[in-house]
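In this supplementary section we document a worked example of the pipeline. Step one takes a protein sequence of length 134 as its only input; no multiple sequence alignment statistics are reported here. Step two produces a three-dimensional model, which step three serialises into structure tokens for compact storage. The input and output of this example are shown verbatim.
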Amino acid sequence: MVAQITKTTPKTFRSWLRQFKGKDSPYGDLATDAFDDSNWTGNTVKSLAIAMVMGHPCYEAWATFRDAARAYITSMGGTNRQKANIEEIIARCCPDDESNDSGVDLDDEMGEHWDYPGSPYEDYFDGDDEPAYD
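The serialised model returned by step three reads:
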């Protein structure tokens, strides 16, 4: 699915995803669910991935998230490092196929507080590597 970008390109993943809220499409479904999820408090791909891990969504939701994250970083003109960071988030969070449709529980895999400053996993999930257009 190729996302249609509005004339004024949003700057954060949250604002980019907002343009799809209420639309009858996979991105629209993702946006509606994301904005209804009280666990999603950030503005980044990483923060939505963390919220989704807590909710254990179905495979289709993960597949749409994966497509949306890639479309977002591409539309923002992300660097190779930013694209690699998004791919790392996808690899760690998204299930590979429908047989494992709950995603990866990051707390189980990496310990309860895997995302603290100085964590060995900090580089994998560094939201600062996403484009920050001010």
